[in-house]
Amino acid sequence: MVRHFLRDDDLTPAEQAEVLDLAAAMKRDRFAHRPLEGPRTVAVLFDKHSTRTRISFAVGIAELGGHALVMDAGTSQLGRGETIADTARVLERQVAAIVWRTSGQERVEEMAAFSSVPVVNALTDQFHPCQILADLQTIREAKGGLAGVTLAYLGDGANNMAHSYLLGGATAGMHVRIAAPAGYAPDPAVVARAEEIAAGTGGSVQVTTDPKAAADGADVLATDTWVSMGQDAKDLAVFEPYRVDEEKVALAGPQVSVLHCLPAYRGKEISAEVLDGPHSLVWDEAENRLHAQKALLTWLLRQTATEEGGG
Ligand code: CP
Ligand code: NVA
């Protein structure tokens, strides 16, 4: 049966751990794994800007022995109104997997519904699950494990990163704290799903408007841009208290690691001192996109009976 990765809870806790183990193995021996030898092609489609996602999928697919067909989807017929379903029907006969960065979550869901090859969410307005796999790999490297680790995310609690930390962190058995201004709390349905997952993994979920309480004693401090791609201008003054700065790092304690998916806006959601300081793991985090996604693609293709006839 075809397996897709559209949101973080598409992997069970055991499956997430398998993917992260594979990611660690792929990082240790970077050029030894070539499941896409042939080469088989993976379509990597973008409706939004990207540096890390575009590069890490293109490099990763090449390192797996495959070929990355990287395309701005707006220049395809999709951009002129061809349906997602018809695009999926064309792609599935030629490629081994489809990776797509787009706006609404329902768009990747529709692509998956009509595709017999794995569809991977490379960021939607609601979730950024590939980023969270890389973040979890980075946290495992720094802390030696994930279960019981406390991650505090400060900033826009209603965006894709916050939602993915909730689902992915709960799946990993972490304690996830989201601190966001009033009006920017996470989607209650995502919080409820994260709580349900956490009940089974020993993790926990906390949503607050108090950034200092969230940072207090946290093992990991994370943030993201206050203005995500596609969002209208908003009042940034309400976010000021949520900046990850020296004060929040001090509240967390000397053990804290700092994550940011990047691109970062120094002086906005994170101070330059912290982003470029000794607690920051952001460059490892950006590198781990490569290893985590190679592992994810390999894992999804192993689970999926391939019928595309050679790609
Ligand atoms: N973190 C991340 O997804 O970066 P890009 O937008 O550059 O791909
Ligand atoms: N929340 C950000 C993440 C960028 C990688 C956005 O959607 O723009």
From TrEMBL:
Carbamoyl phosphate binds at residues 50-53, 77, 101, 128-131, 261-262, 289. L-ornithine binds at residues 160, 224, 228-229. The keyword Cytoplasm applies. GO terms for molecular function: amino acid binding; ornithine carbamoyltransferase activity. It is an enzyme of class 2 (transferase). Its EC number is 2.1.3.3. It catalyses: carbamoyl phosphate + L-ornithine = L-citrulline + phosphate + H(+). Residues 3-141 form the Aspartate/ornithine carbamoyltransferase carbamoyl-P binding domain. Its main location: cytoplasm. It comes from the Bacteria. It is found in: Cytoplasm. Pathway: Amino-acid biosynthesis; L-arginine biosynthesis; L-arginine from L-ornithine and carbamoyl phosphate: step 1/3. GO terms for biological process: citrulline biosynthetic process; L-arginine biosynthetic process via ornithine. NCBIfam families: orni_carb_tr, PRK00779.1. Belongs to the aspartate/ornithine carbamoyltransferase superfamily. OTCase family. This is Ornithine carbamoyltransferase.
